[in-house]
Amino acid sequence: MDLVPSHVRSQSANRVKSKAPAKIQITAEQLLREAWERKEHAVPIPKQQIADSEELLDYQRNERKQYEMRIVRNRSHSPLWIRYARWEEEQNEFVRARSIWERAIDNDYRNPVIWLNYAEMEMRHRFINHARNVFDRAVALLPRVDQIWLKYAHMEEMLGQLTLARLVYQRWMKWFPENSAYFAFVRFELRHGRSDNARKVYEQLVNVHPTSHSYVKYAKFEERQEELARARHVFERATEALSTSQLAPPFFLSFAKFEERQKQMKRARAIYQYATGEFSETESPELHQSFTNFEKRHGEREALDSLLSSKKRNSYEAILDKSPTEYDTWFDLLQLEESASSADRIRKVYERAVSNSPPVATKPSWSRYIYIWISYAVWEELACENLQAAIKVYKRCIDRVPKRHRKFSFGKLWMYYAQAEVRNKNLPAARKIYGTGLGVLPEKHSLYERYIELELSLGEFDRVRKIYENWLTRNPTYEPAFLALADLELRLGETHRARSVLELATSIEELSSSTNLWEKLADVLKLEDESSAVRRFEGYISSKPHSAVWLAYIKMMEELHAANDAIRRVYERSVNALREEAIARKDNSEQWREDAFDMANKWLHWEENSVDDASDKEGYVARAKKLLPRKVKKVRKGVAGGEEYWQVVFREEETSVEGVGNKLLEAAKRWKRHQTNGDS
Fold first, then answer.
1. Which listed CATH number (3.40.250.10, 1.25.40.10, 3.90.660.10, 2.60.120.200) goes with 62-142?
2. Tens-place pLDDT, residues 365-424
3. DSSP-assigned beta bridge partners for residue 648
4. Are 62 and 84 in contact (CB under 8 A)?
5. Contact call for residues 409 and 441 (beta carbons, < 8 A)
6. Rounded distance between C-alpha atoms, residue 442 and residue 469, angstroms
7. Exposure on the CB side of residue 181, measured as CA atoms within 13 A
8. Mean pLDDT of all residues in 331-340
9. CB of 198 within 8 A of CB of 227?
10. Which of 289, 282, 290 minimizes the C-alpha distance to 259?
11. For the chain, counts of helices (H) and of strands (E)
12. Do 274 and 296 form a contact (C-beta atoms < 8 A)?
């Protein structure tokens, strides 16, 4: 240990000093590639040269010993038996080879590979009887292995023993194999020109395997033999012998194409129509597409339209089967049925549609559903000319709405129901429906309007006034109702009533600044008395100094052809009044400021377009400009980064701000002088 240097003995010597990655990185792929390139090639084993019979016997003895030892170790490994037998075959030791094959069969007789290789050895060396013996034993032990039967029959056919080959096929058919076995038998008979025998094989096939595929193969065989009547008979036999569940779409497709090739278009169309009725487009798109192409080639326009309608109908039905509340799809289906179907069928589709009510009791989810009911009623009335049936549909729909319309309802439904009763000349029922609908939907203005239209058409003005009274009682801030009632009173010559209605409307806080109401009131006042109209507006202004009142007042004076000085005084009073109101309302003055600004602009525009003398006009325009407020950009605090906005500022406010600024400037100057005198 003393001879070992201390730095080698130390524990730190074994540690990695640098854990940084190497400058040159070597990938695993590169390592594998270099290993493959640098591998050492194995030294080839020299072939053994056998010089005489003794060496041959010694070689054979060693090989047999090795094979036997391997078989003892792994007796169930069939490839080992096959290699052993083939090696004996290469040594031309056929007896030994047969012995090995027999031992392999005794070990595993269910392995068809052993039987096939055994028979192939016998065939390679022309031991035909031995091969027949092997095949006979094989098919007796393994009758369900098709490959053995095929090899057996093929061997006899290659030897020219057609009778024996046919006998092999017939023995095979007694085991009722799969369809492929019968097809192989048919090909054998056809190769040797025995179509009658092939027909008999097909008869066996359809008896043993009665499927649509078997019948189609049989019919195509007859068609290739130009036995068209027989081919059609085979197709017809299939439709009689097989149930509907066994007849697949390819069968009908083949049958229809066969008739089309024979120029039997009516037969082909009938087959297509039946098949497309049995199988939907999702089940067999190829069949439906083939029918469409057939109609495009040979059909008339009506038949093609009917086919396309059928395809659309099937697609809609598929969607509705998955989602019965898909009401847009129901509308598409109903539109299709109304254009191409009978009344009974359309009615059945409508009944199916309305039977699927929405699962959720909310108005948006019920809207499309209610439209289906309305469409149903309209169809009954217009297409079927059955008004009573339409009324019954409306009644059923009214009863279907959940919780008797307490949660939600539909104005159009009540409206159409009432109009149907009007067309039925049942006015009491119509009035009752309108009244019930308004009780359920007091905020539905269109329902009031239709009810009023009905009573107006009947000349029932007292009823109309009651309806308006009910409408305004439940909706006291709805401006169009007041205007409509005022128009009605004017048409009836009741100017006093119209003025009272409008005055009532303008007395409501929410409507007191409505321009339409004040202008309408001005028109009514002009009809009564021009002088009293001015007095009344003066009273309105004193109580409600809104810009709408001033504008209506000015418009009325212009229409009454008042003097410019009178109009000018009203403009100036309105600007001053709005300015004072805006200054008085410190917190909520934005709208009043905007109104004052707009009024001043209108005044200035009116002065610029007035017809006064040029000398006076300049003074009036200057006066209007002097009272015109100014818009100033300001920044609103409390918002991130500040928010810029425009504010209307009056001249009084600007003067007061300038006065405060001047006082501050004077105080600053006095303080500066005081500081200067103190330092000196």
1. 1.25.40.10
2. 888 888 999 999 999 989 888 999 999 999 998 888 876 677 778 888 889 989 999 998
3. 631
4. no
5. yes
6. 12
7. 27
8. 84
9. no
10. 290
11. 34, 2
12. no
Measured at the CA of 224, the angle between CA 185 and CA 292, to 5 degrees, comes to 120
Residue 643 has what DSSP assignment? E
Q: CB neighbours (10 Å) of residue 205?
A: 23
Q: In this structure, are residues 118 and 128 in contact, taking their beta carbons and an 8 Å threshold?
A: no
Rounded CA separation 398/413 (Å): 8
The pair of structure tokens assigned to 273 is: 């129509």
Q: How many CA atoms lie within 13 A of 203 on its CB side?
A: 8
Q: Do domains 62-142 and 325-475 have the same CATH topology?
A: yes
| Cα(8)–Cα(21) distance, integer angstroms | 25
Residues 6+ apart with CB under 8 A from 23: none
As given in the structure block, the two tokens for residue 232 are: 């059609």
Paired tokens of 337: 């049925």
Identity of residue 427: L
633 bridge partner residues = 646
Instruction: Note the pLDDT tens digit of each residue in 477-490.
Output: 888 888 888 888 88
Q: Is 227 helix (H, G, I), strand (E, B) or coil?
A: coil
Q: Coil, strand or helix: which one is 648?
A: strand
8 Å CB contact between 629 and 648 = yes
Q: What residue segments make up the domains of the chain, in order of their start? A: 62-142, 325-475
Give CA–CA dist 509/345, Å, rounded: 59
Does residue 91 contact residue 123 with C-beta atoms inside 8 Å? Answer: no
Fold of the CATH domain 325-475: 1.25.40
| CA–CA dist 291, 272 (Å, integer) | 6
Beta-carbon-side half-sphere exposure of residue 331 (alpha carbons within 13 Å): 11
Q: Which residue has the higher pLDDT, 64 or 640?
A: 64
Least confident of 27-31, 202-206, 296-300, 585-589: 585-589
Quote the CA–CA distance of 579 and 595 in Å, as a whole number: 9
Q: What is the mean pLDDT of the chain?
A: 81
Quick check: 292 and 329 in contact, CB under 8 A? no
Residue 678 has which token pair? 């103190």
Residues in the chain: 680
* Helix extents (H) in 74-126: 78-90, 94-107, 112-124
352 Cβ contact list (under 8 Å, min separation 6): none
CA 285, CA 417: separation in Å to the nearest integer?
44
**Of 91-95, 558-562, 668-672, the least confident:** 558-562
pLDDT band at 1 (very low <50, low <70, confident <90, very high): very low
